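YM 10:42: Peptidyl-prolyl cis-trans isomerase sequence, as discussed on the call
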Amino acid sequence: MSSNQVRASHILIKHQDSRRKASWRDPEGRVIKATTKESAVTQIKAIRDDIISGKSKFSDVASQISDCSSAKRGGDLGPFGRGQMQKPFEEATYALKVGEISDIVETDSGVHIIMRTG
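YM 10:58: structure's back
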């Protein structure tokens, strides 16, 4: 990992306004197409609260419910530099300290929470 790169894990919840309305959990997008953005935000807020309070572990939740293929790695996206991720995602990640978890971040993919790991 080079000095200008960060490493992060995330949990993504897609919704009916997401760019790609399908995921490994929902290959035909039935649930995603029926999920409003408000509902996705409510879900991710509850998940974030559980992780912050210690009730749930970030990687466990990611592997079970994240709509990103990184779920198979507990949400780990590996190292990335500027310009590789959607702008709101990149900015949120760079603003975090290692070990910190972001507030809800909205991108064209859906709603995320991000944990900076490196």
